[in-house]
Design brief:
This protein has 8 helices and 14 strands. Strand 5 and strand 6 form a beta hairpin.
Length: 245
């Protein structure tokens, strides 16, 4: 099996992501250097939304957890609390939650490689157990000291060096610029010269089925057309990674 997605890190987050991806028809491989159940020196407090998400993934922790209906913080004689209303959270041991997710991932058809470390990430896959595993996407779920984040060049530092593109649900097109000028705004500085920049914009519009739209006012576009222009502007910046809302 050649996976579509390799998830580095087999903790609760990685396994939940794996099950969700399988529900959408992707072939998934989870790799972790540890053997299950993976523990840490604390329990897990699942908020109501987290309990709902687990249910959607087919994970039912009821009977293995203690419900709670709010939070209270106390310090130096002061306290603040908030209730959850009709919903409830769950307190559960980390090892119990992990075992439930391991079993759920197996039932969903997620492939796992326990006790093996991913040692390298490239554009077309990962190196796992000394061998190359090809994939389309890599998900870093390997915690606070994420090696995937380091390999991807996403360590804290200059946002310009990170080369990350963000696309929100709102298109955020500049209303005072034409469609073509919005796209040209995304071009990298090394694309110089009015002719070359205009050619890049026209080529992008043509690929997106929007040929001849360069002079259009964004206000005259349909919602779908505006979304395509926003995506094109992002891609013309040549990001190394995309964050899609």
């Amino acid at each position: 099996m050649t996976p579509d997605i390799v998830i580095v890190g087999g903790g609760p987050v990685g396994l939940a992501a794996a099950i969700a991806a399988r529900q959408r028809g992707f072939e998934v491989l989870v790799a972790d250097r540890e053997m299950p159940p993976i523990d840490k020196p604390c329990g897990e407090g699942l908020m109501p939304e987290g309990v709902s998400v687990l249910g959607a993934l087919g994970i039912q922790p009821n009977g293995h957890a203690v419900p709670f209906r709010g939070l209270r913080f106390t310090e130096a004689g002061l306290s603040a609390e908030a209730g959850f209303g009709a919903e409830h959270g769950l307190g559960i041991r980390r090892t119990v939650l992990h075992r439930l997710l391991v079993d759920g991932a197996a039932e969903a058809g997620v492939a796992t490689r326990w006790g093996e470390a991913v040692t390298r990430v490239s554009r077309d896959g990962v190196e796992l157990g000394g061998r190359k595993v090809a994939c389309r996407w890599v998900v870093g779920a390997d915690g606070r000291g994420s090696r995937v984040r380091h390999w991807a060049g996403l360590e804290p530092g200059s946002s310009e060096r990170r080369r990350i593109g963000i696309l929100f649900q709102d298109d955020l097109l500049f209303p005072h610029l034409s469609v073509g000028e919005n796209l040209a705004f995304g071009l990298r500085p090394r694309v110089r010269g009015r002719t070359l920049r205009a050619a890049r914009v026209e080529a992008a519009l043509d690929e997106a089925g929007l040929a001849g739209f360069a002079a259009r006012d964004p206000a005259t576009l349909s919602g779908g057309q505006r979304a395509r222009v926003a995506l094109l502007r992002l891609l013309l910046a040549e990001p190394e990674a995309l964050l899609l809302d």
